[in-house]
Every structure is written in C-alpha cells, then in structure tokens.
Amino acid sequence: MAQTSRRRFLAHLAAGQNRGPAAGSRARRSLSDLRQALRGVHSYLPTPFHANLEINPEGMRRNAAFYAEAGVESLSLVVAAGLGELFSLGFEEHREVVGAAAAGADGRIPVVAGVRGGFRFALRMARNAERAGADAILVFPPPGGPQTLEGQRRYFSEIARSVGIGVLIYPRTRRDDWSSLLEELADLPNVMGFKDGSRGIALGRSLGPQARKRLVWTARGEEHALQVLPAGATAYATSFASLAPGACHEFFQRGIRGDARGMDTLFRERIAPLADIRRQLPLPDRSPGFGVAAIKAALEALGRAGGSVRPPKLQVGGTARIAEIAAQYSELTEA
Fold it and tell me: Taking a C-beta distance cutoff of 8 angstroms, is the pair 39, 74 a contact?
C-alpha cells in the first residue's frame, strides 16, 4: 500500500489505542445514530474455529477489538453471516460468536449479526443477536424456493418487529416489485437498509425519495460498489476490509464523492491484488466471492484468529503464498 496511507492508518491505530473505550460505550446507539453509523464499509469477518472445528470466541473477541481499536472511520463489523459460516452454526454458537464480537467492539464500532433460516429459526437467531449485544441484524432471504412478495414481506417485517435493534434486509432482487416492498419495510423504525444483491443500479434508484433517505443502500463487493457508490449507494460490503480496512475506507470515500476514476485506481492497486489469495483454494471451492478458508489463512498470517473451516467448505492450500500476499497488501499485523 502507499506509504502515506500506511502512515495515516497507523496514526489512526495509535489514536484508538491511546484513547481507550469511552465511558458507557457498551450502551447501544439510538436508531438514528445507528443509521448514520452504518453508512460506510461493512467488513465481513469469518468465524474463527479451533483445529477440532469448535468455535473460538476469544479469537473473535480479539479480532473485533483489533478493528475497533484501529480507529478506522465508517467501519461496521458483520459477523456470523455468509463469510462467517452462518449455515454451520448452532443457536448457542451463534449467540456466543455474536456476543464475543460485541464484547470486542465494545460499542466503538457497530456489530451486525447474520440471521437466516425458516421463520422460527430466524426469529430465535434475531433475538439471540439482540441479547448478545449486536447493534443490528442482517436478515437473509427466507429459504424454501420461490415465495410470494406478500410472504416475504411478512417474513422480514415479523422478524424486524421481534427486536428493538437495527435491521438490514438482504432481499431476493430478481423481482421488479422489490422496491415497493423495501419502501413498505422502511416504515418500520428499526429497518435501517438493505444489501443489494442485484449487481446493478436499478433497485436502489427505483426507491422513492423518502425510502432512499431512510435506507442504507449497501453494494455487494467492490465491483458492484464501483457502479453504485457514485450513483447514490451509502455503504458497501466486503471481505477485504478484514485485511485492508484503510484502503476500503478510502475506496468508499472516493465512491460517495463520485470519484469513479480514483476508485478504480485504488481498487486495482491496493484491493484487487488481495483476491489472489483465492487462487490457493482447491478448484472445486473457487466459486464467486472470496473464499472463507483463504481469508482465514491470511488473517492467521497477520497474527489474527482464523483457523479451520467447517464442512462442506474446503481447507486452503498454498498458505505460504497467502502469507506473502497478506504481508504485501494488507495493512497491519498484530503487535
């Protein structure tokens, strides 16, 4: 990364370490403050596991504390979601992982917990996350194949009403009428926004002015963010912020300023090279997205908690090469 950016990021870290947590920092933000805090980079963190595939809550707590202490602005942590192997977690494990992240963040940065599954399962996960100290939940689409729009409205709205914390929606986006559903959900006081899986601009732009003002429009990854941040999106989700949070923050800032050329340059020079860690994955696991095992191996190389992946995910090879890439393009190691 550029030396000036590295110095700036190290200065942020030093300031955060010297500052310490503010008094009463464990108190949750108001919903209006949370809505503002969620505008920025949503850093997706993996769930650390021990070699025996048991969860490593202390590793999650330390990881969350590391990012909270770094002092990067406009950063939220998304845990126990897709990159966090949510599908493999039991209810108590989910609560413990979310609680560890909330303890590590200590109110300094928002913690968002993934929620998915059948209606009763999702309700329990949402309440688990609230009790564990999460600031918000990210509700994935309901399982079971195609559903009616009304059925999905009931699913998301009932889950949102079951908690007092913030709610982000991850809708199925292949329907022309999703914008009307999002506008309805925006009337619920704790619905903060949505993760846009459409890979395009149309869904966010189709919202009315009131919904666009209220809802945090979140791009899915850097390539999508290159399109939608200059077009009005107000956040973006990435796994690379776990390795280069300063670069991702700068990428976001350039995007909301409409600096598409600057975004592209920064992405190519400081973020995209990290994608090479995926080339160390076994071929069957090189699916779209950023491999969980590869991100975990990179975190381990940097002195943070990563560990194993649970089946059906596959362990990564080429860890020496991953360590080289992490050392070259990531920003900080543990002291």
Answer: yes
Task: Supply φ then ψ for residue 235, to 5 degrees.
Answer: -160, 165
Helix (H) or strand (E) holding 221: helix 221-228
Q: What is the pLDDT of residue 19?
A: 35
* Residue 234 contacts residue 211 (beta carbons within 8 Å): no
Q: For residues 48 and 307, is the Cβ–Cβ distance under 8 A?
A: yes
What tokens does 298 get? 């990179």
Q: What is the pLDDT of residues 83-97, one digit of tens each?
A: 999 999 999 999 999
Is 184 in a helix, a strand, or coil? helix
Active site residues: 170, 195
* Alpha carbons 245 and 271: distance in angstroms, whole number: 10
Residue bearing tokens 């850093």: 43
Q: For 225-262, b where at least 16 C-beta lie within 10 A, e where not — what string?
A: bbebbbbebbbbbbbbbbbbbbbbbbbbbbbbeebeee
Is pTM beyond 0.85 here?
A: yes
What is the maximal distance between C-alpha atoms in the chain?
Answer: 52
**72-84 pLDDT per residue, tens:** 999 999 999 999 9
77 DSSP β-pair partners: 43, 111
Residue pLDDT, tens place only, 263-284: 999 999 999 999 888 777 665 5
**Domains in the chain, ordered, with CATH?**
27-259 (3.20.20.70)
Phi, psi of 307 (to 5 degrees): 85, -160
Residues 269, 5 contacting (CB under 8 angstroms)? no
Pick the closest to residue 171 from 229, 215, 123 (CA basis).
Answer: 215
| Regions of the chain where pLDDT drops below 70 | 1-26, 173-176, 281-290, 332-335
- What letter would DSSP give residue 55? B
